[in-house]
Amino acid sequence: MREEGLAAIVVMNHDDYRYLFGQDRSQPRAILPAEGPPELIAFSAEEPELRAAFPDGEVRVFASVGGQIHDVVDRLRALVARQPASPDGGRPKVGMQLWFETPAFLVDLFRRVNPEVDLVSSDPVMDPVRAVKDPGEIALMREAQRIAGLGMDRARELLRPGVRARDVATEALYVMQRAGAEGTSTPVYVNVGPDTCMLHGRQSPAPLEAGHLVIVDLTPRVDGYCANLARTFVLGKPDEGQAALLDAYAGIVATVPGALRPGVTVAELDRLAREVCARHGLERYQVQGLGHGIGLRFEERPAPTIIPQHRSVPLAEGMTVTIGHPVLAVPGVGGARFEDVYRVTAAGGELLAPHPIDPVI
Amino acid sequence: MREEGLAAIVVMNHDDYRYLFGQDRSQPRAILPAEGPPELIAFSAEEPELRAAFPDGEVRVFASVGGQIHDVVDRLRALVARQPASPDGGRPKVGMQLWFETPAFLVDLFRRVNPEVDLVSSDPVMDPVRAVKDPGEIALMREAQRIAGLGMDRARELLRPGVRARDVATEALYVMQRAGAEGTSTPVYVNVGPDTCMLHGRQSPAPLEAGHLVIVDLTPRVDGYCANLARTFVLGKPDEGQAALLDAYAGIVATVPGALRPGVTVAELDRLAREVCARHGLERYQVQGLGHGIGLRFEERPAPTIIPQHRSVPLAEGMTVTIGHPVLAVPGVGGARFEDVYRVTAAGGELLAPHPIDPVI
Questions:
Q1: Which of A64, A193, A241, A302 has the most beta carbons within 10 angstroms of its beta carbon?
Q2: pLDDT for A117
Q3: Residue A1: inside a domain, yes or no?
Q4: DSSP letter string over B49-70?
Q5: Which of A170, A196, A297 is most worth mutating to test chain B (most B CB atoms within 10 A of its CB)?
Q6: What confidence score (pLDDT) does residue A359 get?
Q7: In the predicted structure, residue A66 carries a pLDDT above the cut 60
Q8: What is the pTM of this model?
Q9: ipTM of the complex
């Protein structure tokens, strides 16, 4: 935080809160000053529990209900005043996660009530801390990925002509929640026919038909940790175009994970995938950004299909990434993808939980 | 839009897209110029379907994938250039929904690539258009509320000592999805014991015990339209404190909805609720903001527990609002709430779908 010139980081998101404090709450709110203990912001009803959870006195609890915003503004002013003048003469900076789950209106409100500070992304501080997963985190991610596999088995079992995508999604979610998933990072995607051409298509309302391609994408969470498992199925014998697609993607996930070693970038993985696509004559349909970081956030750095510059982020040992994010789609034929989560190791990507690739139903 | 000085509104959210175009897609993107037809922004794979859905030629489709942001920037520049100079001499303005589901990072990105325009909330234009629901909208909201009732019946059936809140939530969600809910606006809240004191407590991991208060809050959606049904239960005979809480809230929802007439404000509803609380000696525990607007957004204007100024918004005939949003919580006893959705009419609030208040299990 000192290197980035941050007087404080304001935590408003479940993933940061869970990472820092080892628990979750419905409205996660905390201030991390550049110096000194973190300060949890709680409603009065939460105070006894928070004091019991953090008895060492390193945590201060704000207990006012109506004055919460007022308290936060006062604390930030005090922290900013304490901060040494910025070496570049700029305004004081406060960090906050500015990503998918941070509502734009909260950020605008924060800027209005704190006009004297620059609100910047906390990613440069938090990303390096969180990128490499410890064994406890890996265990939770394995469990989440295993549960995704149970959902996928249930979906595969149900996929047949006449069934509706929505009903398959309902049953897959039910199986995953009964197995311990606390929810999913995204809707349960069951994309059918032409909708397989979109990265995250709608849940097609029409019943499945023989010959349809179907992509199922499952994202259960366990104790906040995310899974991501996508499989493509075809109802009946694939035609020539479908077979080429499925073979090409199977080739990608058989080849590329071996290169998931420290130092590799997504751009390099994309080049390897491109070679496989070329062998099937499909290279012009390839979409860049073969994988993304995953952990307490569903898409962590690198997230190259959201931020193209992330294609050149070197991966490190112990990071967790997906392979198989972009759909390989041929207009008039359909799309395919097989996505799994891997841990980066010196020996290449270690699959967190194996799941078969068995597309023909 | 002319009155607000907007050159265009950029649509990035499902609720606006569904309202304006009568359908949904996984990445809803459109530009509404102050003059001229709306412009849908689609990926190439979506183009045939969009052209079929809007064959009257009033819709232009951008088909480039990589150049999507570039296209939007170019179009906005052209629209802004066409705009007459602002009467107050200010910079040109573009509207966008800036609410819970608009990611902060997209807004920041938009501001970086469009430095010459002020991005402002589109609410002043969209809220008045959407506040009053037409009969088709009311029918969908009734259906969503009916489905919430099915989930509540299932939850009530399962609530007993030894059961875990999470398992109750899983079963309630499953019943609602099987009945046609496409998902929920919030997690399924099943808050137990001390967690009932929080507006949206966590899903307590410990099993239920005799004597526990339990709040179940269900928010299924049907074709994008939101429901909101909350009930409080007690496992066994309520003690004196619990009985006072439950009686007070039952009194609120028996009394206040009669006042849901055109022109009334949430502040006035709060005053009526306060009188009921006072009769039970609980007025100091009352939280302001008895209800909120609901429709394609889960919390629409007025949303007084988020934006306190909304307490003075006058309601209009045909608006849909909840009554029963804030928890009435007494430390050491627990919290209670009964929340339903009503349509504002000249004769008072019309309950969209009745559901019993029957708290003692």
A1: A302
A2: 87
A3: no
A4: HHHHHSTTS--EEE--STTHHH
A5: A170
A6: 97
A7: no
A8: 0.93
A9: 0.91
